[in-house]
Amino acid sequence: MSVEFSVSLGERSYPIYIGQNLLSDVGFLQGIVAERSVAIVSNETVAPLYMDALVKALGDRVKIKVLLPDGEQYKTLDTLSRIFDQLLGAQCDRSTLLIALGGGVVGDVAGFAAACYQRGIAFMQVPTTLLAQVDSSVGGKTAVNHPSGKNMIGAFYQPEAVIIDVDTLSSLDDRELRAGLAEVIKYGLIRDEAFFSWLEENIDRLLARDADALVYAIERSCRNKAEVVAADELEHGERALLNLGHTFGHAIETATDYSSWLHGEAIAVGMLMAMVFSERVGLLGQEQRQRAENLIKRAGLPLIPPSELDAQTFVKHMRHDKKVLNGTIRLILMRKIGEAFVSSDYDEDRLLLEINSILDIHK
Ligand code: NAD
Ligand code: GLY
After folding, report:
1. Using CA atoms, how far apart are residues 94 and 191, in angstroms rounded to an integer?
2. Class for domain 175-361, per CATH?
């Protein structure tokens, strides 16, 4: 079973392919790469698992394999520079196709390399984590981190295609799978109530890695993301909804030095905090928040923020988020499951009070 649909962005539109056995489908891979020279960027964990399949399919089109060390700490300008050195060393020219094979870190850094190398070369995403398959590989956000903040240096640069082989998820550990599920649940919460209901019915199949269920959940997630990106590619409006829970989650990730919490875990708690705040200010019904909490819990994700955080520190970290505009923290709040909105129009003292109360309850 495989599906194909497009992210509609005029002349920069591109297909997303989702299915099983895509990395072993030689005819399919050769068809989309055509006769171009290829540079594959991956990391030392993913390459031993999936690089051979790509090389076998693409043969001597593959001019160079660039292997990065594994980890968010390597999503840096130094790593970017290493990629450029290797592309230049292999005399890759502007017709080279760059393929990013890996999770969101590889996709973000390789995508940014493609955006900059010789003023821009074509690239494809082959995401291998659930998070990358449902979120980071689609939509063209590419970046590296700076010591002062995450994803601070980057570009919007759309791939030429996204190839999602769900078989790659078989080697992903459970914790990473659950972290990806947080982003899947996010689409149901922000704009797709029917999908949220489907997730309530099928979360156990996803946790058991049922291939049909995974293909469906990834497809539905990517279709949601594709629609949002097509409507607001550069995040002037609607795209900000994709950040539900991210400003709260960002505070958790920063406060814990990006070491003990996975991004998806912080987002799960962040989404719940956004919902609790929405509930307390009278926007969201208690039973809606409870439904969301139940699903997040069944997905095996955390529900409460780390105990060492106090409300002041929380808000201080929220202020340093990229989504802050003219000093105002823009929050994504909820009216009901399937309906989120961007708000700068809330009482910041109330926010502090409610964060305090959420943290207190769990002490
Ligand atoms: P990651 O890339 O660090 O991957 C997680 C771990 O899984 C790594 O150790 C990786 O090597 C390993 N891995 C990857 N695929 C595997 C597989 N199939 N089998 C076994 N191990 C595998 O983390 P992630 O969660 O994929 O991505 C997080 C990054 O994505 C962050 O840097 C974040 O900023 C970025 N992101 C970007 C966007 C965007 O729109 N561009 C959106 C969300 C997140
Ligand atoms: N991950 C949020 C976005 O792509 O906009």
Report:
1. 39
2. mainly alpha
